[in-house]
Amino acid sequence: MSERLEDIAAAMVADGKGILAADESSGTIKKRFDVIGVESTADSRRDYRELLFRSTDAMKNCISGVILYDETIRQKAADGTPLVDLIKAAGAIPGIKVDAGAKAIPGYPGDTVTEGLDGLRERLAEYYKIGARFAKWRAVIDIDTAKNVPSRYTIDANTQALARYAALCQEAGIVPIVEPEVLMDGAHDIDTCYDVTRATLVKLYDALYDARVKLEGTVLKPNMVIAGKKSGQKNTPEEIAEKTLRLFRETVPVAVPGIAFLSGGQSDEEATANLNAMNAVGPHPWKLTFSYGRALQAAPQKAWSGKAENVAAAQAAFAHRARMNGLAASGKWQQ
Ligand code: 13P
């Protein structure tokens, strides 16, 4: 496989394929395992992720790359094969989450900035040796209009950090997934999400230009334009698609090869339907696909529930969601 950044980025958003976000931190995966009554240990985390990466048909046909957590990229399958090798054998690209999480900003209650730049050059060099060819950094922008959240300051701090991360990745031969996530947890309406996401993307591409990041060798991982969960509003896939596409046409340069959405707390089927609605009205100047965590994994986690005898059922559940999202990435999904 080519090592050129633009070729790796193009492969990450290949037709009908998307990215599996399996990079939950140890804290987050524990929360997911608590729901299915599984103790989170290095072995249970390995067993679970191994079953996903061994879902051969789904991985080969629908998954272009897998985002891993530091522990997982170093782990071996039960038979001693490195998990990274399982991913490569399925024709997918290993990737790595490199940020150190969102931290509170002094003086700005409710705002956060994602940390992790210290020592990043050295960590990227090591991840490259282990096999990572792309990375992920997630900035978190919450919305709480009553509290003036997000501030302009948090958008600046987060987009500057994303740009510095992206430049370091490219120096190391690694494609940066640039993820500015405007959360859908609040009570805001869809137009507020539009405005905040717009302000964020404008600043983001400004910062990426300043940092001399080559956009052809990046992938954007954004939220969709959608009302907050506590708003009581329910948007149709067509409305979400129309507003999201309008915003991207305004803000995302055509040099960016692809946009791979996060699911952000949407249900499995909503995440599929919304992506499909966008691709049903193409063509667009960029590929539009998925980089889902929860919307790909909730079903297999439930089916598995930590039991070896459920592995085949969990793999079938994962394969189904991967197939549905693969179809949505081509605008060919039907309810
Ligand atoms: P969700 O699809 O569960 O939002 O996770 C994707 C992700 O990687 C967030 O950083």
TrEMBL record:
Signal peptide: none annotated. NCBIfam families: FrucBisAld_I. Keywords: Glycolysis, Lyase. This is Probable fructose-bisphosphate aldolase class 1. It catalyses: beta-D-fructose 1,6-bisphosphate = D-glyceraldehyde 3-phosphate + dihydroxyacetone phosphate. Pathway: Carbohydrate degradation; glycolysis; D-glyceraldehyde 3-phosphate and glycerone phosphate from D-glucose: step 4/4. The keyword Lyase applies. It comes from the Bacteria. GO terms for biological process: glycolytic process. Belongs to the class I fructose-bisphosphate aldolase family. One of its GO terms (molecular function) is fructose-bisphosphate aldolase activity. Its EC number is 4.1.2.13. Gene3D superfamilies: Aldolase class I.
